[in-house]
Amino acid sequence: MTSFQSAQRVRAISVSEILRITDHANALKRAGRPVIVLGAGEPDFNTPDNICQAAIRALERGETRYTVLDGSSVMKAAVQHKFQRDNGLTFALNEISVSAGAKQVIFNALMASINPGDEVILPTPFWTSYADMVQICGGVPVLLPCSEAQGFRLEPAQLEAAITPRTRWVFLNSPSNPSGAAYSAAQLKLITEVLLRHPAVWVLADDIYEHILYDGLAFATPAAVEPGLRDRTLTVNGVSKAYAMTGWRVGYGAGPKDLIAAMAVVQSQSTSCPSSISQAAAVEALTGPQSIVAERCSSFQARRDFVVAALNRTPGLNCRTPEGAFYTFASCSGVLGRHTPGGVQLHTDTDFCHYLLQDFDVAVVPGTVFGLAPYFRISYATAMTQLEEACARIHAACAALR
Ligand code: PMP
User: Fold this and answer.
1) What percent of the chain has a predicted confidence (pLDDT) above 90?
2) What family classification does the UniProt entry report for this protein (predicted)?
3) Atom of ligand 1 nearest to the CA of 239
């Protein structure tokens, strides 16, 4: 029998490292270890009841069939309403695409637009799926390191220098996974000024963490900050993070109708349409009462404050205060070179994360996975009691180093 050979296009990529680490930690947990998993990027809250009820009503009405392939008309109208209400952006229904998660929106956009060798500029640290998706589509990820000193944000000059005749897209993700860094409207304006000088470059704004933004900072998105970019911007968002709906799999994007139509072709030959029941739930999420979004955000903010303070009290660690999302991205450079009680020398952030998991039962993700070392990401979308215990263990782990 001939063994399985994977296709060329998937050889350079692998299963999401974050999911792999989370699965491994969960397996240890099932085996009886008291592991605290701070890996996964999903809110610990339940989906609000009004949203669940909307899904039940849809089921009772018999809404169990295929919908329009890139979103039911009701769902598209809900997305249209959301963009108008929250972002001051006006889109026609044929400028809106709904998929099984923001991830599929991004995937469809790349499948619909990338030719072999096309470059996609990805400011790092970045959500790793971006690079893998670009590669599946035959494109070339161009990673631009954004240091902590620059607030993990892309500098306009850095962007200008990276644009080539092959550049197809620039991705912007604010607030960011993994750094939590967000752009103010003024900071974004400087980036959009560069892009105005390069009319062939498209912008993908991943706004999935829009509603998880702290300290009163106003959310800004490129198409609203610079209307001149509207004709080449895809604004991506979804219900996963804002409404604790990761398992429902609904995301959406809005942009020029020709791109949206090409994305619909891709979707028609892969998933056909997002789940009808999930779309009914998402309509309620986007058009129903919004107060829960702010309530949950303030609870995330309390957790952020706790985790940042705890990490900054820990010998060898240093954590910038993130503006949004539910992650901290702390430097562990101060522990590198040191030895664990078991005599192992820590050389990299991956070594450090391995030590935390093996010896202290805390699962976090190394910065290397996100393209910037030596850092580690904590997802603090978990109960405060768990965070207290986890931070105490991380402290003990660092204090035990020699
Ligand atoms: N973008 C970013 C930056 C994310 O962190 C995630 C989820 N981890 C997504 C997109 C995808 O979200 P979903 O597919 O659940 O809508």
Assistant:
1) 93
2) Belongs to the class-I pyridoxal-phosphate-dependent aminotransferase family.
3) 16
Q: Return mean pLDDT, the chain.
A: 96
Q: How far is the CA of 208 from the centre of ligand 1 (A)?
A: 6
Residues 33 and 24 sit within 8 Å (Cβ to Cβ):
no
Instruction: Give the global pTM.
Output: 0.96
Name the band, by pLDDT with cuts 50, 70 and 90, for residue 148: very high
In 10 A of CB 216, how many CB atoms?
Answer: 5
Q: Can you tell me which residue has the tokens 């998929």? A: 99
3-state SS track over the chain: CCCCCCCHHHHCCCCCHHHHHHHHHHHHHHCCCCCEECCCCCCCCCCCHHHHHHHHHHHHCCCCCCCCCCCCHHHHHHHHHHHHHHHCCCCCHHHEEEECCHHHHHHHHHHHHCCCCCEEEEEECCCCHHHHHHHHCCCEEEEEECCHHHCCCCCHHHHHHHCCCCEEEEEEECCCCCCCCCCCHHHHHHHHHHHHCCCCCEEEEECCCCCCECCCCCCCCHHHHCHHHHHHEEEEEECCCCCCCHHHCCEEEECCHHHHHHHHHHHHCCCCCCCHHHHHHHHHHHHCCCHHHHHHHHHHHHHHHHHHHHHHCCCCCEECCCCECCEEEEECHHHCCCECCCCCECCCHHHHHHHHHHHHCEECEEHHHHCCCCEEEEECCCCHHHHHHHHHHHHHHHHCCC
48 lines ligand 1 (CB under 6 A): no
Per-residue pLDDT at 201: 98
Delineate the domains of the chain, giving CATH numbers in brackets: 10-40+292-399 (3.90.1150.10), 49-288 (3.40.640.10)
Report how far ligand 1's centroid is from the alpha carbon of 104 (Å): 9
Mutation to probe ligand 1, out of 17, 103, 134, 239 (largest number of atoms < 8 A from CB): 103
Find out whether the beta carbon of 206 lies less than 6 Å from any atom of ligand 1. Answer: yes
User: Which residue is closest in CA terms to ligand 1's atom 8?
Assistant: 41
Q: Is the CB of 173 under 6 A from ligand 1?
A: yes
Rounded alpha-carbon distances, angstroms, from residue 53 to 62, 263, 277:
14, 31, 11
Pocket test for ligand 1, best of 21, 22, 208, 234 (most atoms within 8 A of CB): 208
